[in-house]
């Protein structure tokens, strides 16, 4: 009975990690995103995503950056450092959004876009100084390493370790019973 259970648990673990999940996203190439305009305080830039989303899908844009209190994402204005806006893609899967930087813009703003299936490459918009003398970003390094890991990766690793522990305990239990 225990041998069947262990064999079934082993097969279940292999199936769990070998079969891709439905939640895996499709990542669009960077060439499909363009940004036009002058990224200066108070100015508007347009981020265009060409034929990468599901036609007609609701695309969620999320803008994150320092002093985003005065930033406007399309026509939505928020008083937080991260704000979101939803806009439908056209029949070809393309969509564009206007980002107006706040008048006190400094540093880099990140614009992310997804329709729940496709994830567009994040767009970085660095605010130029108001006088046009270059970047207004005094310290763009936030000190964090880019690891590429996600919460989903952590969950998969934890589930695998837990499953392996259960299998090892069952094997140990079977060996004890067999030796008695």
Spans where pLDDT lies below 50 across 5 or more residues: 76-80, 133-141
The proportion of strand residues reads: 25-35%
What's the name of the CATH homologous superfamily of the largest domain? Immunoglobulins
What's the SSE pattern?
Answer: HEEEEEEEEEEEH
Number of strands: 11
Helix content: 25-40%
Distance between the termini: 17 Å
Number of domains: 2
Describe the 3D structure:
By secondary structure, the chain is an alpha+beta fold. It has two domains: 25-127, Immunoglobulin-like, CATH 2.60.40.10; 150-179. Helices cover 26% and strands 28% of the residues. It has two helices and eleven strands; from the N terminus they run H-E-E-E-E-E-E-E-E-E-E-E-H. The protein has helices at 2-18, 151-179, and strands at 26-27, 33-37, 44-49, 58-64, 72-73, 76-77, 82-88, 95-100, 108-114, 118-119, 123-126. It has a five-stranded antiparallel β-sheet with strand order 2-3-8-5-6, with no helix packed on it. A hairpin with a 2-residue loop joins strand 5 and strand 6. Helix 1 (2-18) runs antiparallel to helix 2 (151-179). The longest helix has 29 residues, at 151-179. It starts with a helix and ends with a helix.
